[in-house]
């Protein structure tokens, strides 16, 4: 079986395992969703109404039957209906997921464009003034929480300097320039810490590669520094950098809550918070499974990139 096929089977198994664990955990949480939905102002709902709602939502079925229905729906892309307004969950996820993916993707792009070249330059000037300055800035960026960065960006860039809008969302098709303007600050806020991570990993990886024998041999032969960096250093240093970027982007898929809140960006994370507060477990299940599946998919893509960057991975 080929490398890609093996990794694909492992990824499918991981998605199934995560979906099953999330289903069980949600159903182990104390409380009756039907009773919670019908409760108003702390007044206990009518038991007959609770039982009718449980039957309509399938909550009175055995757990194994609910699990089978749940898996069958996932295979068809059907996440069920919201307990709050009976709106199809798949439609809401399909609406919000691209917004979060766009936010995370833009942040990742900014982080790579900043962290990768600056980390390489710092490694090539290790111990020098430029290296110390860049490392200090990276340490500062890592120490500042994302909500502080977001709040300062709104206060300084939006309210005082009025360079960019303070927040909100406009569809790309409706107004491309305003859409990009509204995307810039939340993506940049996420990219501050992420670019510092990429910088530090790149610097460390390049320094490690520079000490390898084949690089030293190329230097001894008088190979131009630019050719050494292009042929021997960058390619070999990319593997840990790709790993870190993939892991952080996967984490950001469900971790952009504060940024989406600060900038009023209607993505998937805000939808997840609303669903948890309402204890709308079908929504929570659907969102968590989608985020987990994307995380697994991202790691699958990274495995394929490894095979391209280092062919030895395919035979490991």
UniProtKB/TrEMBL annotation:
The chain crosses the membrane at residues 7-29, 103-124, 136-159, 179-202, 237-264, 284-309. The keyword Membrane applies. Residues 97-306 form the ABC transmembrane type-1 domain. Its main location: membrane. PROSITE patterns: ABC_TM1. It is a multi-pass membrane protein. It comes from Plastoroseomonas hellenica. Keywords: Cell membrane, Membrane, Transmembrane, Transmembrane helix, Transport. PANTHER family: DIPEPTIDE TRANSPORT SYSTEM PERMEASE PROTEIN DPPB-RELATED. InterPro entries: BPD_transp_1_N (IPR045621), MetI-like (IPR000515), MetI-like_sf (IPR035906). Signal peptide: none annotated. Belongs to the binding-protein-dependent transport system permease family. It is found in: Cell membrane. Pfam families: BPD_transp_1, BPD_transp_1_N. This is ABC transporter permease.
